[in-house]
């Protein structure tokens, strides 16, 4: 009985170790991200952009991670290997949309749609 209880408690989500180095599709990436226990997660404060309606950051090592954001058109995107310093600057920028355009767009790999 004790073994069964320990097994159940450890099955909350997959480990960061189980994440692939690269994803081949958006659906593979979002499923893996939603089912992983990350060391660090954070969300963008509301109303920091006219076109980014939400954004989250997920990191296994407090150094780099996945930036997931949704636009006002309902599209969701994932950037891989974004440094946590970039996330913090993005999150604290007066306009997250402008910061994204100048410091993230085209610089960090987008997971294929």
What does this structure look like?
This protein has helices at residues 2-9, 26-34, 84-92, 96-103, and strands at 40-43, 52-59, 64-71, 76-83. It has a four-stranded antiparallel beta sheet. The chain is of the alpha+beta class and 113 residues long. Residues 1-11 have low confidence and may be disordered. It contains four helices and four strands. 30% of the residues lie in helices and 25% in strands.
Could you give the topology of this structure?
Layout: H1 2-9, H2 26-34, E1 40-43, E2 52-59, E3 64-71, E4 76-83, H3 84-92, H4 96-103
Helix pairs in contact: 3-4
What would the keywords be for this entry?
globular; disordered N terminus
What fraction of residues sit in β-strands? 15-25%
Secondary structure class reads: alpha+beta
SSE string: HHEEEEHH
Low-pLDDT segments, ≥5 res: 1-11
Helix content: 25-40%
Task: Note the overall shape.
Answer: globular
Number of strands: 4
Number of helices: 4
Strand order of the largest sheet: 1-2-3-4
Question: How is the main sheet built?
Answer: 4 strands, antiparallel
Query: What value does the average pLDDT take?
Result: 87
Radius of gyration from the alpha-carbon trace, in angstroms: 16 Å
Please report the distance between the alpha carbons of the first and last residues: 44 Å
Question: How is this structure best summarized?
Answer:
By secondary structure, the protein is α+β, with helices and mostly antiparallel strands. It has four helices and four strands, in the order ααββββαα.
């Amino acid at each position: 009985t004790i073994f069964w209880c320990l097994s159940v408690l450890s099955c909350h989500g997959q480990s960061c170790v189980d994440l692939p180095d690269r994803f081949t599709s958006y659906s593979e990436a979002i499923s893996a991200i939603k089912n992983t226990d990350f060391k660090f997660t954070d969300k963008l404060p509301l109303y920091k952009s006219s076109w980014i309606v939400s954004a989250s950051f997920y990191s296994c090592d407090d150094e780099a991670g996945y930036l997931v954001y949704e636009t006002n058109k309902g599209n969701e995107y994932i950037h891989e290997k974004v440094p946590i310093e970039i996330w913090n600057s993005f999150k604290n920028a007066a306009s997250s949309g402008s910061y994204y355009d100048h410091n993230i767009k085209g610089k960090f790999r987008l997971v294929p749609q």
